[in-house]
Amino acid sequence: MKRGIVWGCLCGIMFFSGCKNIEEYTTQEDSHVEKEAYFLNQIEKKESRFISLSAKEFKQFTDTISSTDKKHIILDVRTSEEFQMGHIKNAHNIDFYSPDFVTKISQLDKNKTYFIYCHSGNRSGQTFSLMKKLGFTTVYNLQYGINDWKQNNFPLVQ
């Protein structure tokens, strides 16, 4: 009975606030607490975007980012050695395996737009989830990592 009332209220909030379907923003791994946080976030009008992109889509966005752009950040979460072997132009490196990785990510401006990638999509996928939990607003993930980028013969810089 109580569950029905809670869901009825949440559905009413979604209907009257014009929110999109919760399933578009959450995964099966999300707990009920995260789903409730999603609704509260929507009520406060802080709509966020967390999207995984193909290499072609990722390149379309990152090609427009200059070295002086302060609102859009390309973030490579591979090791410094991997980064030095070749990275996407204008990317910044924060090593996923460094002991202070979470601290460094949490210190970033949560209102900027981030484009994140790694080697295969595993580390950036974990970073993607972390940034979502930390309250970042807009994050795009290169779904299959730099491997997909290379398979499309897109340029890297050293």
Notes on the structure:
The protein contains 7 helices and 5 strands, in the order ααβαβαβαβαβα. With about 160 residues, it is an alpha/beta fold. A 5-stranded parallel beta sheet has the order 1-5-4-2-3. The radius of gyration is 18 Å and the shape is globular. The termini are far apart. The model is unreliable at about 1-30 and about 40-45 (pLDDT under 50).
Which key phrases capture this entry?
158 residues, alpha/beta, Oxidized Rhodanese, domain 1, 5-stranded parallel beta sheet
The number of helices is 7
Which geometry do the CA atoms define? globular
**What would CATH call the architecture of the largest domain?**
3-Layer(aba) Sandwich
CATH topology descriptor of the largest domain: Oxidized Rhodanese, domain 1
**Largest sheet at a glance?**
5 strands, parallel
CATH H-level superfamily title of the largest domain: Rhodanese-like domain
Oligomerization: single chain
| Element string (H = helix, E = strand) | HHEHEHEHEHEH
Q: How are the strands of the largest sheet arranged?
A: 1-5-4-2-3
* pLDDT averaged residue by residue: 80
Percent of residues in helices: 40-55%
**From the helix content, strand content and strand pairing, which structural class follows?**
alpha/beta
Work out the strand percent.
5-15%
Number of domains: 2
C-alpha-based Rg, rounded? 18 Å
- As residue ranges, the low-confidence spans are 1-29, 39-46
Highest-level CATH class of the largest domain: Alpha Beta
End-to-end distance: 61 Å
Counting DSSP E segments of at least 2 residues, the number of strands comes to 5
